[in-house]
Amino acid sequence: MTMKFYNTMTRDKDEFRPMEEGKVGLYTCGPTVYDYAHVGNLRTFLFEDILRRTLEYDGFDVKHIMNLTDVDDKTIRGSQAQGISLDDYTAKFIESFHADREALNIEAAEVFPRATTHVPQMVEMIKTLMEKGIAYRTEDGSIYYDIAKFPGYGKLSHFKMDELRAGARVKADEYEKAQVSDFALWKAWDEADGDVYWDTEIGKGRPGWHIECSAMSMEYLGQTFDIHTGGVDNIFPHHENEIAQSEAANGVRFVDYWLHAEHLQVDGRKMSKSLSNFYTLKDIGAKGYDPLVFRYLVLGAHYRSKLNFTWQAMDTAKITLENLYDFMCRLDRTKVCGLDEAVARAKDTFAEALNDDLNTPVALAAVFGLVKEVNVQGSGGKEVWDAMLEFDKVLGLRLAEHADSVRSEVPQEVLDLLEQRQHARRSKDFAASDRIRDELLAKGWVVEDTPEGPRVKPK
Ligand code: AMP
Ligand code: ZN
After folding, report:
1. 100 lines ligand 1 (CB under 6 A)
2. Is the pLDDT confidence value at 444 over 70?
3. How far is the C-alpha of 309 from the C-alpha of 277, rounded, in Å?
4. DSSP of 362-387
């Protein structure tokens, strides 16, 4: 089955052809560890997890590198405000990032390189750019990238070179398109940096944010690799600058496919620290939601669509996910149920949807199509259970674990009675089904009939 991804570079859905058969090199811009991640950041990391899992589902051997930006303008500012070392400051945010990642069932990358431990590689790249006459030094000792020397500048974010402001420079890591300028590769130490500096061949200072990713991706994936991802706000300037640095230094194409996730919004605006309109995974937990409800919410929207975060949407996601867990509980794994054809159809649609630029809403619809067929038949068995676990390799909703934990809470006797009640209902023996319902009630269990079938809850 061919796999297609929307490539920001070509602005088209391109067929995915890896450089080496069966293998994929994937680089993801990871968190800037200056604060706790908000769920907007986590949406992008979830998109990357779906990408990784889909590639694995299709049999690719994925080498995924996700960097940790542990030195930049924001981390330095934060550590100084607290009067602690950069390492002490970033350590707790790195830890919390991994805790969030595990809570959301985001698979670990093969390597999580930290910028602070790859400064020599950055220095090497900057030296090459200077030797090639593409980088220049300013009076304070900082080194800038001369964008006029790279004819391809702007090719990812699609703006024209004549929009450039010749000779203008920007030292900040983050800036707007209107400020497009020569950008800092190396920032000479000044007092504001305190004890954050490296003494290197190119002087005393620290790297700019963009060179970090060029150097770390090359270290682990080589000069050219398959897929680079991030959120849409990374397209400019970060990824544009990564291309300029890597391609000018190495003389070869940097990346084949660029994939970017749209933003999570609140009231029509990007969720962000600066707008103070953000929630963390902790906030979500404090409101009583399992983190996987957020994962489910994200799966319900295509990654290239903006997604509005509301508690109402979280409630809907919660109910649907609980119903899915209940559905799993009711499957009888010990015998087949004759739904092979429905299973095969669901599997085809599921894989086709994901291979079509990670269309998770359509993939979920395929899963629910199968759920519906099981409910129409009245019960489902082993082949449905196995298919659901296959789907869960990509969905990552921990379907088996939840089914097992819920199942272990509901006594077998109760599950058997529920099954008998279903049987009575299917044969339209409503007197018997009511009698069993009362019997369950007497034992302390309430039966609820949901669109996904019946479920029991303690009274
Ligand atoms: P940062 O920690 O700021 O470097 O961001 C980590 C990732 O989160 C980047 O890929 C950003 O593009 C992404 N990101 C930031 N804000 C949002 C948002 N509101 N929705 C989705 N992704 C976001
Ligand atoms: Zn990056």
Report:
1. no
2. yes
3. 10
4. HHHHHHHHHHHHHHHHS--BHHHHHH
Q: Tell me what pLDDT residue 453 has.
A: 72
CA distances from 94 to 46, 114, 182, 193 (A): 17, 10, 31, 21
Domain boundaries, the chain: 4-261, 269-409, 410-459
pTM of the entire structure? 0.91
> What is the C-alpha to C-alpha distance for residues 418 and 168, in angstroms, rounded to an integer?
72
What residues does the ion ligand 2 have nearby, CB within 5 Å? 29, 213
- Among all ligands shown, which has an atom nearest to the Cα of 214? 2
Q: Which residues contact 6 (CB under 8 A, 6 or more apart)?
A: 12, 13, 14, 259, 304, 357
- What is the CA(405)–ligand 1 centre distance, in A? 34
> Is any ligand 1 atom within 6 A of the Cβ of residue 234?
yes
**For residue range 324-376, what is the model confidence (pLDDT) as tens digits?**
999 999 999 999 999 999 999 999 999 999 999 999 999 999 999 999 999 99
Q: How far is CA 286 from the centre of its chain?
A: 22
Atom of ligand 1 nearest to the CA of 229: 10
Instruction: Please tell me if the CB atom of residue 118 comes closer than 6 angstroms to any atom of ligand 1.
Output: no
Ligand whose nearest atom lies closest to the CA of 47: 1
Q: Is the peptide bond before 237 cis (omega within 30 degrees of 0)?
A: yes
Q: Is 270 in the pocket of ligand 1 (CB under 6 A)?
A: yes
- Residue 180, amino acid: V
Centre of ligand 1 to C-alpha 55, Å, is 22
Cα–Cα distance for residue pair 174/176, rounded to 1 Å? 7
Which listed CATH number (3.40.50.970, 1.10.3730.10, 1.10.730.10, 3.30.70.1400) goes with 269-409?
1.10.730.10
pLDDT of residue 161 exceeding 70, the answer is: no
> Is any atom of ligand 1 closer than 6 Å to the C-beta of 44?
yes
CA distances for 118 relative to 68, 255, 260, 262, 273, angstroms:
11, 20, 25, 29, 27
Confirm or reject: Cβ of 43 under 6 Å from ligand 1: yes
pLDDT digits (tens, 9 = 90+) for 140-158: 999 999 999 999 999 999 8
CATH topology classification for 4-261: Rossmann fold (3.40.50)
User: pLDDT at position 446, please?
Assistant: 87
For position 166, what pLDDT does the model report? 65
Ligand 1 atom closest to 31 (CA): 2
**CA-proximal residue: ligand 1, atom 3 (nearest):** 32
Atom of ligand 1 nearest to the CA of 43: 21
Q: How far is the CA of 177 from the centre of ligand 2 (A)?
A: 17
